[in-house]
């Protein structure tokens, strides 16, 4: 870009490492000096800042005070908007909706991004949030990565369709097309001599890793598999306690967070996902790009994302059914390998990050956003 770099104000409920934060980092690193990035983390956590290239014009804006009630907060947010004077305000998910309220007059072009729901909305939409989104986001451009979210935004939130845009998440597929790294995997406790059922997830309630542990416990003993849980989060003590209660001992390994999942995934025999709520999980795309067969709960767009051959192993939200899916893949290595290959082909055809980069460049353009808002 030859013009002066545009300033984007990104607001996150948290800037801990997670799917939206990782996507933002990939976008920011790709665009380089084309944009200036100012970042607000509502909870003050800024771990994901380390994902950004050191040469970027990026800085953390001090966390606004929560004191004084809603009106005081909105004034505080408007004050920051006035100080930063961004070309585009970019908000992420429900936890930042007050920033959309602060900008309800549309003074700053606004892009709101909805990636999914926490456990409080896993079972259905909350009326107060539906009405708030309907009223507050009516003048904004709203990005939704999944077909499920697009339907919710148009049919339940009743936002104007011309303000909605579906942008599937994208990943660097080439990065995940690599051979196994047994030394790296072994250093984290991943077995080399038996089947490995692996998952990559934040250890939070909505990921329901207790379901995965229960499913693993239900597998026939003669399979002799290992369960590898990659990720960190507040539920780790409870998960470790359940593993001990079930007597699974060293058959389950917790690796902690891993900054290079591409070096671990090729060591898995099956990728497993046990979530109560997802929309378009990056971890699933990464597993597909790595050529893995997937056993997963049928949430969000998971079944649509995976290759058609994988569909029989996307199952209802029950530990028994998840165990059957895992066992079925492990029992037929040839079929599992064919499914993994089909997943890799689909990932490269539909979810390579090059498409995502091109679309977001227009979304970060205030002229484009204003044109949508005026439609």
Observed structural traits:
2 domains; 15 helices; Rossmann fold; six-stranded parallel beta sheet; alpha/beta; globular; single chain; 375 residues; seven-stranded parallel beta sheet
Structural commentary:
It is a single chain. The protein has 375 residues and is α/β, with parallel strands linked by helices. The protein folds into two domains: 6-170 and 353-374, 3-Layer(aba) Sandwich (Rossmann fold), CATH 3.40.50.2000; 173-350, 3-Layer(aba) Sandwich (Rossmann fold), CATH 3.40.50.2000. Helix content is 39%, strand content 15%. It has helices at 19-31, 69-84, 97-102, 127-136, 147-156, 173-176, 182-187, 209-218, 236-245, 282-289, 302-305, 319-331, 333-350, 353-363, 366-374, and strands at residues 6-12, 35-41, 58-60, 88-92, 110-113, 141-144, 164-166, 196-200, 226-230, 252-256, 270-273, 294-297, 314-315. Strands 3-2-1-4-5-6-7 form a seven-stranded parallel beta sheet, with helices on both faces. The chain has a six-stranded parallel beta sheet with strand order 10-9-8-11-12-13, with helices on both faces. α8 crosses α12 (319-331) and α10 (282-289) crosses α13. The longest helix is centred in the last third of the chain and has 18 residues, at 333-350. It starts with 5 loop residues before the first strand and ends with a helix. The model has no long low-confidence stretch (mean pLDDT 92).
